[in-house]
């Protein structure tokens, strides 16, 4: 079955105030969708992403526009506005080691309750967290993460919603597609069914709900 192809304005109608949104990408996000979110001015969002980008790119635009109440992320060093809002008490920031964050999202997507990790033992990361012992070794219990919406990116998408992710975009986008109730993909290129070799499909169409073509994307 072909997936609905919609515009960004219609896509962000699925986002309500207070929603939890996952964003795939490194120092970027699904920019067409982010711009539509900024225009819609949806508030009190919780975002889950590798980083908070820069002030004027990706999720950094949402933070700058005061649409985010909490960011769950790996680092904020590239966005001074994130740091300013955090220090001023305007934005809650939960810093999670990258490998741990990936596994928390993966656990959410595969129906697990969480993961056990030694990363962060003896540091502030472990404060107020459950610690258990397995075979004589201590682990932090990290609960799984899920979201209401995932805005992910694809290099190529066919009209059934099968996705190919180029390079490092394969790192976050496929697992986030598994961990959200509604998944909307923004694609650089939209192609007919059969164009993608099945061996190159990184995210299968079963996880995708809607397709949005990136501004200036190639459609064939």
Automatic annotation (TrEMBL):
<dbReference type="InterPro" id="IPR004165">
    <property type="entry name" value="CoA_trans_fam_I"/>
</dbReference>
<dbReference type="InterPro" id="IPR037171">
    <property type="entry name" value="NagB/RpiA_transferase-like"/>
</dbReference>
<dbReference type="Pfam" id="PF01144">
    <property type="entry name" value="CoA_trans"/>
</dbReference>
<dbReference type="GO" id="GO:0016740">
    <property type="term" value="F:transferase activity"/>
</dbReference>
<dbReference type="InterPro" id="IPR012792">
    <property type="entry name" value="3-oxoacid_CoA-transf_A"/>
</dbReference>
<keyword id="KW-0808">Transferase</keyword>
<protein>
    <submittedName>
        <fullName>CoA transferase subunit A</fullName>
    </submittedName>
</protein>
């Amino acid at each position: 079955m072909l997936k609905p192809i919609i515009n960004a304005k219609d896509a962000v109608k699925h986002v309500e105030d207070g929603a939890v949104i996952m964003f795939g990408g490194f120092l970027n996000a699904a920019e067409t969708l982010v711009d539509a979110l900024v225009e819609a001015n949806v508030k009190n969002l919780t975002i889950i992403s590798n980083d908070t980008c820069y002030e004027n790119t990706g999720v950094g635009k949402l933070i700058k526009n005061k649409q985010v109440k909490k960011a769950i992320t790996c680092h904020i060093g590239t966005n001074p506005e994130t740091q300013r809002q955090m220090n001023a008490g305007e934005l809650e920031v939960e810093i999670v080691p990258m490998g741990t964050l990936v596994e928390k999202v993966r656990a959410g997507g595969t129906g697990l309750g969480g993961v056990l990790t030694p990363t962060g033992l003896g540091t502030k990361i472990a404060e107020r967290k459950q610690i258990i012992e397995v075979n004589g070794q201590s682990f932090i219990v990290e609960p799984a993460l899920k979201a209401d919406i995932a805005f992910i990116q694809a290099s190529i998408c066919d009209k059934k919603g099968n996705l190919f992710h180029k390079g490092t975009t394969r790192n976050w986008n496929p697992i986030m597609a598994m961990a959200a109730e509604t998944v909307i993909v923004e694609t650089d290129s939209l192609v007919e069914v059969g164009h993608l070799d099945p061996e190159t499909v990184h995210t299968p169409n079963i996880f995708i709900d809607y397709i949005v073509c990136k501004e200036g994307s190639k459609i064939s």
